[in-house]
Amino acid sequence: MNKPLRIAVAGLGTVGGGVASVLLTRGKELEERAGRTLDLVGVSARDKSKNRAANVSKIAWENDACALAKSDADVIVELIGGEEGIAYDLVKSALLAKKHVVTANKALLAYHGAELAALAEENNVALKFEAAAAGGIPIVKALRESLIAYGIDSVRGILNGTCNYILTQMEATGQSFADVLKDAQKLGYAEADPTLDVGGGDTAHKLAVLSALAFGVTPNLKSMKIEGIEHITPDDIRFAREFGYRIKLLGLARKRGDHIDQRVQPAMVKLATPLADVEGPFNAVVANAGEAGPFFFEGRGAGEAPTAGAVIADLVDIARGSFGAPFGRPAKRLTRNDTQPGPRSCAFYLRFEVLDVPGVLAEIAGRLSESEVSIESMIQRGRAPGEPVAIVMITHESVETSVASALKAIAASAKVVAKPCMIPMESR
Amino acid sequence: MNKPLRIAVAGLGTVGGGVASVLLTRGKELEERAGRTLDLVGVSARDKSKNRAANVSKIAWENDACALAKSDADVIVELIGGEEGIAYDLVKSALLAKKHVVTANKALLAYHGAELAALAEENNVALKFEAAAAGGIPIVKALRESLIAYGIDSVRGILNGTCNYILTQMEATGQSFADVLKDAQKLGYAEADPTLDVGGGDTAHKLAVLSALAFGVTPNLKSMKIEGIEHITPDDIRFAREFGYRIKLLGLARKRGDHIDQRVQPAMVKLATPLADVEGPFNAVVANAGEAGPFFFEGRGAGEAPTAGAVIADLVDIARGSFGAPFGRPAKRLTRNDTQPGPRSCAFYLRFEVLDVPGVLAEIAGRLSESEVSIESMIQRGRAPGEPVAIVMITHESVETSVASALKAIAASAKVVAKPCMIPMESR
Questions:
Q1: Which residues of B touch A149 (CB under 8 A)?
Q2: Percent of chain B scored above 70 by pLDDT?
Q3: A398 found inside a domain
């Protein structure tokens, strides 16, 4: 019989509690798969007295999570979160102490992934993070171990369940972003401070992780364009549908010559394609794997069981001795990808809020034409008398910067009452 | 530097040729991932003189594939196919000679999976088969290594690209099964003898593999109900759409108490759910992973690159020393699941071809009522005068055997001109 794998969990929130529960109640099944027992030997959290679903009363408790790095555990599971502070200190000191690390911390990996991966490799221990991107979907393992023979051309994903829930609800109810967000906060689907989710930052963290796995680049937020969903209106969602599209917040990474284009932005996704049908808090990823074609993965992106399940899978891999370079390639061979994506060429959805006065359409059309942006289809729909009118267009394929400069000129017009909205159309 | 992994490939058809090509042309990328080189050291195929895309002229050639088991290769890749004969002999003798085996042979695994897995474990070598189910989709790895924390309740998949292509084309063109099959054969999407594909046998082989991984049962075709798509008519496909469904050939495995229900059959899948949107030669799998919820995987199920890519991923795992029990649990702990599934309770789609004479609907409704099958909705549509009429119904949830006995009585009526058709409605 192989000796037990000794596991310490730092952070006993939703996910940490779930991991502890599975370790304490499903030991037999996990042993059958791992060939050894997985023993929970230490835990740490902020408040020892808190009532928890998992009964950890018999497990050694540390008030200071960083003390776990000095314990006799073989693996530290970091579920504290945040890119600096305790999480960073704990992971780094654990790796230096030659302990394996499993983490769900995308922010930590987005900021320090390359450094920590190198440290894991030098110390010949695992750094695993299936739970850090797309929750329960085994996309980290798929990119690291499965879709490797022909390289990856692009990865596109719905990576933030909060944003996808908000957009789904805006479509279902016709309510504004602000109203749906308020409800989502009440239901626990959005944080009290929702900025990281709705501003695209969380998606960016996850995209940095997926890009590193797919393309062998160091995780790097500075190379990304990041845009959130705060400015999406019920009108945009309705018009999208009329054009046969649905608005989704996507994380997009594409190979363009030697450069990897990385963006987080709302995009128009064609109805009846897999990404368009991803509803509510679900996440999904499309990976275009060269000649092997597109692969699509969908599942729950957050919540106790999906995320804890991903952590458990990493732990069983470690128990079986199955781990290699954290990003699938040696950390020292990861390449830097520092520059922001250049202007893209695609069709765009444009929305203008204008006064209902003569000449306004001529002015908009003129400005677009000056920038060599041509229009493929248009909807203009009146509202109540005296209210501004929405003019909505889909352009032919156009250069992003040309569209942006036309929009800047249009925004300056006295007939235009709000900042124009511009959303790229994603081809499948 | 670790020593190279020595690989011999038996069978140089589409997939074998693809594997050889990747090994010969993408060595650097694979080495980076595996930490050692993957060397192609031997090949075997029926015809040495055949022109092949992969240039294997400098690789040691064996006319007798079984001789590879006695070569100095570390891994044998079996791509010959068939559940008996050379494939079985080669895999068995390779495992006995303590060589790792990678295979895409679902028939071999469906008939001899438990025996071969036990042999691999006894000899402490790998038996890997990502390419054996759903082609390029990494579902074997996902079920074996990722979706393990909460157990699996059900696995449902579109596992045969030929059938899915035929059904997609029948819907697109309105042509009959026989006509579309003929075209598919011309295009190379269907074999000259299509029985194994269209009769459901190939789906059954793959389902046996997925069931073993998901539920820890020995692969066993005898425990399955297997039905093909030969009897599906363009009418069925049209009516399905009117009811809001699409017909797909599914492999279904479900936990029912201690028993695993395994079936291959055409089923009505609700439009706008992931399985309904799987088109043409694509494959897809929905795995319900307990509290972690449903996971959906889609990708190319056949063809050179997707399948060769799956073989390459297995080879890189072996090169990294990452392998355990072939079915994720020790072979000796796989449980037998010998009995056929009992009658299921669900709604059914029924189609009757009847003479356009008085009393026919009353007779059908009467028979169904006698068997306690109640009707949820119905379409009757006339054809040209004198031609038989189609009566189509969706039942409320009913016991399969009750519906079948009503259909048997109805089929005996002089007013019914063809065997009634019965297709279960799949809830998501």
A1: 22, 26, 30, 305, 308-309, 312-313
A2: 100
A3: yes
What are the residues whose beta carbons fall under 8 Å from the beta carbon of A255, sequence distance 6 or more? A151, A152, A153, A154, A215, A261
Torsion of CA A130, A131, A136, A140, to 10 degrees: -30
What CA–CA distances, in Å, run from B41 to A230, B74, B77, B101?
58, 10, 11, 15
Q: How far is A399 from chain B (nearest CA, A)?
A: 32
Contact between B299 and A320 using a beta-carbon 8 Å cutoff? no
CA–CA separation, B318 and B34 (whole Å) = 9
Residue B110 shares a structural domain with residue B181: no
B321 in A contact zone (CB under 8 Å):
yes
- What six digits make up the tokens of A168? 């789904």
Residue B35 contacts residue B2 (beta carbons within 8 Å): yes
Q: How confident is the model at residue A44 (pLDDT cuts 50, 70, 90)?
A: very high
Q: Tell me the C-alpha distance between B181 and B190, whole Å.
A: 7
Could you tell me the two tokens for B99? Answer: 């060589």
The predicted pLDDT at position A68 comes to 97
Distance from CA of B341 to the nearest CA of A (A): 25
Number of domains within chain B: 3
Give the model's pLDDT for residue B427. 75
Nearest CB among B148, B299, B304 relative to A312 is that of: B148
Q: Which helix (H) or strand (E) holds A91?
A: helix A85-96
Say yes or no to pLDDT of A427 above 80. no
If DSSP codes are grouped into helix, strand and coil, which group holds residue B102? Answer: strand
Q: Within this chain, do residues A86 and A63 fall inside the same structural domain, yes or no?
A: yes
List, in sequence order, every residue forming a beta bridge with B8; answer none if it has no partner.
B42, B76
Are A79 and A160 in the same domain? no
Which residue, among A163, A172, A301, has the nearest Cα to A231 in the 3D structure?
A: A163
Q: Same domain for A128 and A11?
A: yes
- Helices B106-122 and B201-215 pack at an angle, to 10 degrees, of 30
The CA–CA distances, whole Å, from A328 to A109, A333, B310 equal: 14, 10, 16
Give A335's DSSP letter.
B
Structural domain of residue B90, as residue ranges?
5-132
Q: Do A329 and B32 touch (CB under 8 A)?
A: yes
Residue for token digits 């549509």? B381
Q: In this predicted complex, what is the ipTM?
A: 0.95
